[in-house]
């Protein structure tokens, strides 16, 4: 009789199962850690790339607005720098503003005074600076055109000639000691050898803020700023709003009304003037000056005095520092509590940005760039 040998199948023992589970858990923990680290690196790279792109775009926008500061009127300093600008749009007074400018520009004086570029220290949101830029955009020479004395009358001016002018051109009528008034050439105007420049259109007005066109009678000048279409002048306020957005405001309301967003994630903006303190005719920046320094505050630079005009003429560049913040929040703090701006310059002009409490886990970046104010170099 044959007996079959029975075999018994054995599984893992309890110690073996425990060892296998421990190994599996260790492997799972290692993989999870690697994935988490990779995700953290990816988020950091993405956040850094976003900051880089945003910084480049914001810098480009500001450079574009500032580089032509003073174009169209900086060749006649005495007649233009510091003059109170009066503008009427559709028979309503636009400048001086009859009420505060919209936020974040409410701290900028409503009686706007002409200058290529002015930094209003601490006038924006969170104590950031506001920068006012004025630039014409005319195809004509930037030389001031003399107006025949006592020829300014309602609806017209008399010049030596009107070559190169066309309908819709915006003119800055200026006279030392009187002020500045923006006027517009009429829709039917055609420039040429004729001396009579007829005014009309949305920006033409005989009286603005109590100043009449006939008061420009002694030694008035005209600057062609540009046209209402095509080559429009740029009179802009640039600043940071409460939502951490770089914004602009068109003082002439040629392109848009109200505050316009330019770039998000910009939490601070500060400016320094590059000044030729030697004033030896070499046109070289010898010192960087804060817009809070004596003689270089916004009020001092636009008071219309000879000293103010001379200081404006020797501002050859502006250096801007932007502080940008990412939207992504990390699990741990990745930013120091304070950031130093203009750190490569003398300590006297260093400025500090304090990171708000609770946001140190977001990435911040300081970007600085210098813009030469080429239209001011030849001003006399």
From TrEMBL:
Q: Which domain of life is it from?
A: Bacteria
Q: Which PROSITE patterns match?
A: PROKAR_NTER_METHYL
NCBIfam families, per this entry? IV_pilin_GFxxxE (TIGR02532)
Please identify the protein, giving its name as recorded. Type IV pilus assembly protein PilW
Q: Which organism is it from?
A: Pelomonas aquatica
